């Protein structure tokens, strides 16, 4: 039925051609979906928020968010696998931070969008 409507209205070949030229590969789109999935959890968003403010260790994040260190560590592992956070060791303590400015930009744009 939908195809019939398209045939009646006419397919816009110029638009299809234009978009086809810039359409990313499936692998890139898959990676983007995985990135957004990693951000699709309120605990991970809360962690991203605090790490946008300051580099922190697991115990500080756990205290701030009133969660167990184990729960925070699990979520940090997901964020690290998605290349959203990175870590560095200072003695026995591991500090976590946002990977780069792109992560902050994505986060702040999302916050701006939902606060409109």
Kindly estimate the percentage of residues that lie in beta strands according to DSSP. 5-15%
Summarize model confidence as the mean pLDDT: 92
Distance N to C terminus: 38 Å
Question: So, the CATH homologous superfamily?
Answer: Winged helix-like DNA-binding domain superfamily/Winged helix DNA-binding domain
Order of helices and strands: HHHHEHHEEH
The chain-level structural class is alpha+beta
The strand line-up of the biggest sheet is 1-3-2
Domain unit count? 1
Q: Could you list the spans in which at least 5 consecutive residues all have pLDDT below 50?
A: none
What does the radius of gyration come to?
A: 20 Å
Number of helix segments? 7
Largest sheet: 3 strands, antiparallel
Question: What do you see in this structure?
Answer:
With 116 residues, the chain is α+β, with helices and mostly antiparallel strands. The chain has seven helices and three strands, in the order H-H-H-H-E-H-H-E-E-H. The mean pLDDT is 92. It has a single domain, classed as Orthogonal Bundle (Arc Repressor Mutant, subunit A), CATH 1.10.10.
Short key terms for the protein model shown above:
single chain, 116 residues, Arc Repressor Mutant, subunit A, 12% strand
Helix/strand layout:
Layout: H1 2-9, H2 13-22, H3 26-38, H4 42-53, E1 56-57, H5 58-65, H6 69-81, E2 85-90, E3 93-98, H7 101-115
Antiparallel strand pairs: 1-3, 2-3
Short recap of the structure:
With 116 residues, this protein is α+β, with helices and mostly antiparallel strands.
């Amino acid at each position: 039925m939908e195809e019939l409507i398209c045939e009646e209205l006419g397919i816009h070949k110029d638009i299809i051609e234009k978009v086809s030229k810039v359409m990313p590969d499936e692998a890139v789109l898959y990676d983007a979906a995985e990135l957004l999935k990693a951000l699709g959890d309120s605990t991970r968003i809360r962690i991203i928020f605090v790490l946008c403010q300051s580099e922190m260790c697991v115990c500080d994040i756990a205290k701030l968010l009133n969660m167990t260190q184990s729960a925070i560590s699990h979520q940090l592992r997901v964020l690290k696998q998605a290349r959203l956070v990175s870590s560095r060791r200072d003695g026995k303590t591991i500090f976590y931070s946002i990977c780069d400015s792109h992560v902050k930009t994505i986060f702040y744009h999302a916050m701006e969008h939902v606060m409109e």
